[in-house]
Amino acid sequence: MLEQIFILLIALVVLVWSADKFVFGASSLARNLGISPMIVGLTIVAMGSSAPEMMVATTASLQGNPDTAIGNAIGSNITNIALVLGITALLQPLTVSSQTIKREIPLILAVTALGYWLLIDNHFSFIEGVILMTGFAIYIIALLVITLQKTKGKPSDDPLIIAAEQDVPAAVDMKLSLLWLTVGIILLPLSSSFLVDSSIFIAKAFGISDLVIGLTIIAIGTSLPELAASVMSIIKKEDDLALGNIIGSNIFNILAVLPIAGLIAPGDIDPLAASRDAPYMLGVTLLLLILCFSRRRGAFRITRAKGALLLLSFVAYQVLLFSHL
Prior knowledge:
Mean pLDDT: 83
Strand content: under 5%
Strand order of the largest sheet: 1-5-4
Low-confidence stretches: none
Membrane topology: Multi-pass membrane protein
Keywords: Membrane, Transmembrane, Transmembrane helix
Pfam family, one: Na_Ca_ex
Subcellular location: Membrane
Protein name: Calcium/sodium antiporter
């Protein structure tokens, strides 16, 4: 058992590290090919934080454990809002003025509701996976088109877009870019395979379901990049980016991570995912929407008290999960 716990922790560290190197290599390669920092920031860098979830979902689904993949997507969204944003707001209250974020907060509620609706019959089909993936493609294209139309070749005045551009790593030599990209491509699936295998072993040893292991250990572990990014954002006084990272990651989790289970391993799912976990995810997302509409001079304001409320909702969810074991 101790050996499996050690493997899980090492695999998690390697997974997060390799995702970072993959994003670095891909971003640098894109910059070398002449792609603008804004486009790189809104696509490659933004999707990078969800790379661990995508690899875990793919590995778990290929191994015939779609409940782990579904649990990872749902659990990561709950963790991002309740734990990551809760801790971030407790450390430093957030004031967010980005129009992009104001547009995407209602969107994340709609996307979350769609994910819940697709799971409500306790069956996740291939077609439903295609629907979500199509939504992901539409979202990325719409985000780029709207942003490019607003800027029209000029620098953006949106705090989130500015911060996203600044977060793009500087381009390095093409050979070095390809090296880090290759390292990420090799280590991401390898580490995710070890992570899923050790998680399932531990879950079975303690009598925990595949769904719960995805909702807890894996979800919290794969949300560490969002926590690190949010903490760094408030240190740099980039409040918009701190919240933007979480919102973007949650949209990606529903539209790009969740459908992987349906595309690779369609079929019946654990009924608790639809009756307990997806509704809680929707409720936490609705809570975020309500908290964000506390305005100050037109900006969203997430105070320490609101951060404490979010953190309390995370603790309550863990109690709910383990009270059913």
